[in-house]
Specification:
Number of domains: 4
Helix content: 25-40%
Number of helices: 32
CATH superfamily of the largest domain: TolB, C-terminal domain
Structural class: alpha+beta
Shape: globular
Distance between the termini: 52 Å
CATH class of the largest domain: Mainly Beta
CATH topology of the largest domain: Neuraminidase
CATH architecture of the largest domain: 6 Propeller
Length: 1057
């Protein structure tokens, strides 16, 4: 007999479950309402398939509300959790599985029959007690009655450590479970995995579980990818022992599913990995919600001297700019760390993961082609729109006012997304109180957090457009060539899950063939014919792209030879994939007709689409017999693509032509575009870093021989040559340009005369022009000439009436000089107090980067001429790590205590206020009286000092310190300035903005005043915080306690009007 508790009849009673005479019953420990006691489902029998009631158990009460009667702080039933969602218009949510049917779901994968496999990370965060079996499992869930809710569970696999990824493959599942990548398969159809193979091992297990290798994903190129996380390791294959080990120091991991290859690949993601329909790989990390792996690391191997070695582009805003709109109280690591008080992360992505590209119409047509990103720490899923941006992309939130999914239930933690066979979005919800790992929060905060409540809970949700119809998605393909032909036809299905499953089935078939069969099987010829037919007939670019990718995997033939030419496809994404196909063929020993490949790539290097041009330029770097044609294209693209960092790097990848390209550009007097500046700087560096000084001298001479028509980018090329030479130690401590002019080639070219002319011209520009870009360029060049006249010209450019970019270049140039007097000049009382923040930061960077400047900087800090709080943690560590023992000791002593001994004494005398009982409402009154004029809290107050909204998790000691010792740390962007005007006024405040003609200061209550530079007599940076000292004299001890209690309250609900 089975008793079913419906959502409308929840009660606090024991829930009966279906029993079988063949096995022992399940033990159910009830979840108690209004408490944090767990519901735990503990099998006391040999696990096996069991028919479960549709509502095996419904939580027996309403989630605990916080002290103000607002947001829930305890677990909710599925019905209550559904009501807690705030969804985009037209979207509906349904809980399709919940505890005890599923627990701690971390990844999902549907098989061809529509059964859902779930990786249960039950041991998270700390694993089982010592000596006990690992808790992780793989469950198979079924919907036995077709009502859209899973009601049958089979224990597919047990005894796993921290399973965090699933991929369906050849009738089984690949499971990432560090240190192993496992393959599990049910060979006898009893629902349990009886084949258990270790395909790869060696993935590091020292990092916390959420930062380990994860997310096995089949790429459209036929490789299987894993995200590396923050782990590494030396990866070997017990299944294919002949494979060389892979040292996974950085980058993600991939392998061929037939064991023919394995390698590290550029781009290091955390928990999330996905491909768009055109084969582009995207990854994610906690504070970087969406990143595009633009190319492979080996793309830059053709030019080892190239200064740019990145392979990843941040597509979405990052860090503090990656905004989210949570409905629940946040629980972010920064809120517990005093050292991160200036970097509070509430309201921004802190745990971005589970990225998903939606191809389905099941969420509505306007959401097709959008990206979806989980933010479990703040109980939401964000939808982003993506658009091309040069050779990469940019994305933004779909709405500035609402997320795709938010929940007022802080126990809701979405971590994984996928499209189901019905075309709808499925979400794995690691439903629990705290999602973070104890190792990720400070020691003193761990005791205040509950990492265990909810570990036996879990939810799987389905989101859909209310008007969308269920797609027919289940497919049963036999393992033979005829079934593969059927799969090819399914590549044109309107259901994206069917298309992806069909693509996987074709790839499975291909890699299941022997090398001989791949060459001679009639099935292969038939498969190619069917694929070409699909490509010809498909109206959708996504389908044609998928066909191109499959033909690329099969290789061995030129696209044009198949009767369908994707290199001429109207969709740029298809042409892009076709170029990658030709790139593979260039290194295929069975392909001899490189002429056709070269001809098409030359054409595509001038394609209207930047992504196509980018790939074609990289492919042409492998061609060795078309230098004249390639050089012509490089010159053309230099003038048109220099503003895109990826395209200009593709230009620079032609290392053997860099010198000739520079000579051509130098001879072309028409090239004066400012956009060429970054290209010429990197081109110069590449040439200078190559161990052939004669080419550097010839290229530099060509640039200097343009007479008086020196373009705006000439200083960038000269600096590039100098930094390239310096990067390989050329010239030692002398100017590398002077050393170059003294080489044999330099003397033959009379290079010193050209350099002297450049120096003189730069001094003239520095003193005469009003064009800030030209003046900044002159400053950068003068930094390469260490002589008194150059130094005088640079000092004059430190004047605060100069544009900020000019001051920055002058400061950087002086800081780079091999002369300790430069540090004295940069920190002199004449210049230091008037620096704008960005110039001051440049000076500090220059002085902490060059150890020879350390004695002067430390002396200034010790004397108080430079406030200690201006030195940020990374630069403090640099000074505390100096090799000179005496300097290192001075730095360590200097940073031991910040804020002054007298104020520290006051702080120590008042620490006992933290023991007083706090009244939050009285604390609100104290805030309004003492803090409101400068600080905001939940939108109330003035924007002068830092926003205090996110301080509730901070230790009371840290809050008391900042109240009583405001100079202990002044956060960047909140420094106080004093301005004396010619009309006799003294104005103090926060520097809000600065232009070449005026500055704006903000005082208390948010009042702003704009001052013309022509009316400024002097401007000084204050060594003190704008926040006054002596709060202990205006507030009683009880008021201090009440204020801290108010700042640490759980929410501001009672104060919202």
């Amino acid at each position: 007999m089975t008793t079913v508790a419906s959502p409308s009849s929840i009660s606090s009673r024991r829930v009966k479950t279906r029993r079988s005479s063949a096995r022992k019953p399940w033990k159910v420990v009830l979840w108690k309402p209004l408490a944090t006691t767990e519901l735990s489902l503990l099998p006391v029998c040999k696990p096996g398939p069991a028919m479960l009631p549709r509502a095996w158990i419904m939580l027996a009460g309403v989630g605990v509300l916080n002290a103000h009667g607002g947001l829930p702080t305890g677990p909710l039933s599925p019905k209550e959790a559904t009501a807690a969602f705030k969804l985009e218009p037209g979207i509906e949510a349904k809980c399709v599985a919940w505890e005890p049917l599923v627990q701690s779901p971390s990844a999902l994968a549907f098989n061809d029959q529509g059964h859902l496999f779930v990786a249960e990370n039950r041991g998270y965060p700390s694993g089982p007690p010592p000596g006990q079996m690992p808790l992780g499992r793989i469950a198979r869930l079924q919907d036995s009655d077709g009502d859209g809710v899973f009601d049958r569970r089979t224990e597919f696999a047990e005894g796993l450590t921290f399973p965090n990824g699933l991929m369906w493959w050849q009738g089984g599942v690949l499971v990432s479970c560090s240190p192993d990548l496992l393959y599990l398969k049910d060979a006898d159809n009893d629902g349990r995995a009886d084949i258990r193979e270790i395909w790869f091992t060696g993935f590091d297990t020292h990092s916390t579980p959420q930062l380990r290798a994860c997310y096995p994903t089949l790429g459209p190129d036929g490789w299987i990818y894993l995200s590396r996380g923050w782990s590494g390791g030396t990866i070997t294959s017990p299944k294919w022992p002949s494979l060389a080990s892979v040292d996974l120091k950085d980058g993600d991991f991939r392998f061929r599913p037939d064991g023919s290859a394995a390698e590290a690949i550029g781009g290091n993601g955390q928990f999330g990995l996905a491909f768009d329909p055109f084969g582009r790989r995207f990854i994610v990390s906690s504070r970087n919600p969406l990143m595009h792996a633009v190319t492979h690391r080996r793309s830059w191997d053709s030019n080892p001297a190239m200064p740019f070695r990145e392979v990843v582009q941040d597509v979405s805003p990052t860090g503090a700019e990656a905004k989210v709109l949570p409905a629940a109280e946040d629980l972010t690591t920064s809120g517990f760390s005093p050292e991160l008080m200036s970097q509070l992360q509430a309201g921004t992505f802190t745990s971005a993961c589970g990225i998903h590209y939606n191809l389905s119409l099941g969420l509505g047509g306007e959401r097709q082609g959008n990206w979806f990103i989980c933010e479990p720490a703040q109980a939401l899923i964000q939808r982003q729109l993506i658009t091309p941006n040069g050779a990469s992309f940019r994305s933004r939130r779909a709405s500035e006012t609402q997320e795709f999914v938010t929940s007022t239930d802080s126990w809701h933690h979405p971590v994984f997304l996928c499209t189901g066979p019905d075309g709808f979005l499925y979400v794995a919800d690691m439903y629990r109180k705290t999602i973070d790992h104890p190792d990720r929060v400070p020691d003193d905060a761990r005791k205040r957090l509950d990492f265990e409540s909810g570990r036996y809970m879990g939810r799987i949700w389905r989101f859909k457009d209310k008007e969308a119809l269920t797609e027919a998605g289940v497919r049963v393909w036999k393992n033979d060539g005829m079934a593969v032909a059927e799969a090819v036809r399914d590549l044109r299905s309107r259901n994206p899950w069917v298309r992806e499953s069909a693509r996987r089935r074709v790839i499975e078939f291909w890699f299941g063939l022997s090398a001989e069969d791949r060459r001679n099987s009639s099935w292969v010829a038939s498969l190619r014919t069917e694929l070409v037919k699909a490509g010809k007939e498909a109206s959708g670019a996504w389908v044609r792209s998928g066909v191109t990718q499959l033909l690329r995997i099969m290789g061995g033939r030129l696209p044009q030879d198949l009767g369908w030419d994707p290199t001429r496809d109207p969709a740029a994404g298809v042409r892009e994939q076709a170029v990658l196909w030709m790139d593979d063929l260039l290194v295929n020993p069975d392909i001899s007709d490189h002429e056709a490949i070269r001809s098409r790539c030359l054409d595509l290097a001038e394609d209207p689409d930047p992504r196509v041009r980018f790939q074609a330029l990289l492919t042409l770097a492998k061609v060795r017999d078309a230098d004249r044609d390639i050089l012509r294209i490089l010159v053309n693209r230099s003038s048109q693509d220099a503003s895109d960092r990826w395209l200009r790097t593709a230009i620079l990848s032609h290392a053997r032509l860099n010198h000739t390209l520079a000579m051509r550009l130098g001879a072309d007097a028409s090239l004066t575009d400012t956009n060429l500046k970054p290209l010429l700087r990197e081109l110069g560096h590449s040439i200078g870093a190559t161990p052939t000084e004669s080419k550097a001298a010839l290229a530099l001479k060509a640039m200097l021989s343009r007479g008086n028509a020196h373009p705006v980018w000439l200083p960038d090329f000269v600096r590039g040559i100098a930094t390239g030479l310096r990067s390989r130690g050329f010239g030692n401590d002398k100017s590398p340009l002077d050393a170059l002019s003294n080489t044999e080639t330099g003397r033959q070219l009379e290079l010193s005369a050209g350099l002297e002319q450049l120096r003189a011209g730069s001094i003239q520009l520095a003193r005469g022009t009003t064009h800030s870009t030209l003046k900044a360029g002159a400053a950068s060049v003068l930094g390469e000439f260490d002589n008194p006249e150059s130094r005088q010209a640079l000092e004059a450019l430190l004047d605060d009436r100069e544009a900020i970019e000019v001051q920055r270049e002058a400061a950087a140039a002086l800081g780079g000089l091999n002369d300790e007097s430069a540090a004295e000049l940069l920190t002199s009382s004449e210049h230091w107090p008037s620096y704008p923040p960005t110039v001051r930061d440049m000076v500090i960077t220059a002085l902490t980067t060059q150890p020879r400047h350390a004695p002067v900087l430390l002396s200034k800090l010790e004397s108080g001429a430079i406030p200690t709080w201006l030195i940020q943690p990374d630069k403090r560590n640099r000074l505390k790590s100096l090799t000179d023992p005496s300097l290192r000791e001075r730095a360590q002593k200097l940073f031991e205590s910040v804020g002054g001994a007298d104020r520290r004494k006051v702080y120590e005398q008042h620490k006992d206020v933290l023991q007083l009982a706090a009244d939050v409402e009285r604390g609100r009154d104290v805030f309004r009286k003492a803090c409101l004029s400068c600080h905001q809290h939940y939108g109330e107050g003035a924007k002068v000092g830092p926003d205090l909204t996110g301080l509730r998790n901070q230790p009371g000691e840290a809050l008391l310190l900042h109240i009583l010792v405001p100079d202990a740390e002044i956060h960047p962007g909140f420094e106080s300035y004093a301005v004396e005007t010619l009309d006799g006024r003294l104005i103090t405040g926060l520097l809000v903005s600065e232009t070449p003609s005026e500055i704006t200061l903000r005082a208390s209550l948010g009042a702003e005043e704009t001052i013309s530079r022509s009316n400024i007599e002097a401007r000084r940076l204050s060594p003190l915080s704008m926040m006054p000292q002596g709060f202990e004299e205006t507030l009683t001890r009880q008021e201090l306690a009440d204020l801290i209690g108010f700042l640490k309250q759980t929410s501001n609900i009672s104060g919202r009007n």
